[in-house]
Amino acid sequence: MAGRSYAAAVQWLGAAQRPPHLKAISPIVTGSDFYNGWIYDGGAFQFGFNVFWIWLMSNPRAINKLEDVYKHLPLRTLPIPDLAWARLYAHWLAHSTDDHYWRSRSINRRYDRIEVPAFIIGGWYDVFIRGTLENYIGLRARNDSGGSSRAPRLLVGPWAHGSTYGPYPDHSFDLFAPDDAIDVPELQLRFFARHLRAEANGLDEEQPVRIFVMGENRWRGEDDWPLARSSETKWYLRENRELARDPPGDERPDEFVYDPNDPAPTIGGPTSLPARMLKANSGPLDQRRLEARSDVLAYTSAPLDEPLEVTGHLAVILHAATSARDTDFVAKLVDVWPDGTAIILAEGALRTRFREGFDREILPEPDRSHEYRIDLAATSNVFLAGHRVQVLVTSSSFPRFDRNPNTGNPLGVDGPDDLRPARQTIFHDAERPSHVLLPVIPR
Asked: So which residues are the catalytic ones?
């Protein structure tokens, strides 16, 4: 079996049924869990992608007229033109926690039933990059012998989700072309020749993982994922909007006001949105327009004296308080060039009511500091000498994530008159050291 996105998810679920004639699969750009990393991310509804996909399935001729649809509130009355798809959308909203509805369909609860070899393909700017990597790790752990011919293989390039309208992989981001050129169908054919015809083509002797390292813009083979030689390193949010390796002392917090009537816009990153509405809406876009907003905090390091490679899983540990009954925190990892260009590498969100798990909702106590772990999935990037590492902190990325109305009400019931501003406080002191976790590769 072969295919991408939805067809890739079908491969995983089909393989878990153990049909006797299935010998190998090659799933491209798909997730591992239909709740976290698909319909939701960090507990926030992946509004932009979900609505785009609903319209693509039900009314594709109107796909580039979604701007007004994205503005519609409440979410539960979205004017979906097809009744069957409207019912599916209603199910998504009704199951806003990771409950039985999602668990009964999840791929990551079925690895122990998947016995066929898999050639897994993803992109650093794909909306499903977290699930792509989890599928590899889960199937790798299922394999009894790391050197077995049945062990999974992984390929990750600097791509976004869909060649239907954008850059995967038959189109390329200008930032990486032509160094990212690679013949994906040829690699798949070689993989299938090994497992369907038992062809001795040298595949078993090659490293099972191949990744594109951005910044240096080159392909590299690896023995496994995540990389065993990576070192989880803390870079701290500091006063004067600095990002530093030294932990903070006695420092005053930073504040901003998040107003859901004026959310910070989605600019690039790992998302999938209608291209004509937002032009190039995914991938390595410049974030300087966001830095100028009063509701976005930019913490930036000093220029690097030598290259810094960051390859692996990313997270931001944020100590923060909100005046609202519920809100979102969004974080982005950015590579700032010497000329000021700020290229997004990764983005993640956390709805505060899900800080203790996605299977339960616990509203935060207003104006009290809580610790929030924001999952930014993963990347592979070399910050070159003279570049700076940057972390952006805000409370929205719209329309990728739905606007949190800050009310604490059930998802989708709030209308335009219900939206409430929230005062957000970001702490970075000795007792509450907010930081980003970077998987640093020694050089």
From this structure: 5, 126, 161
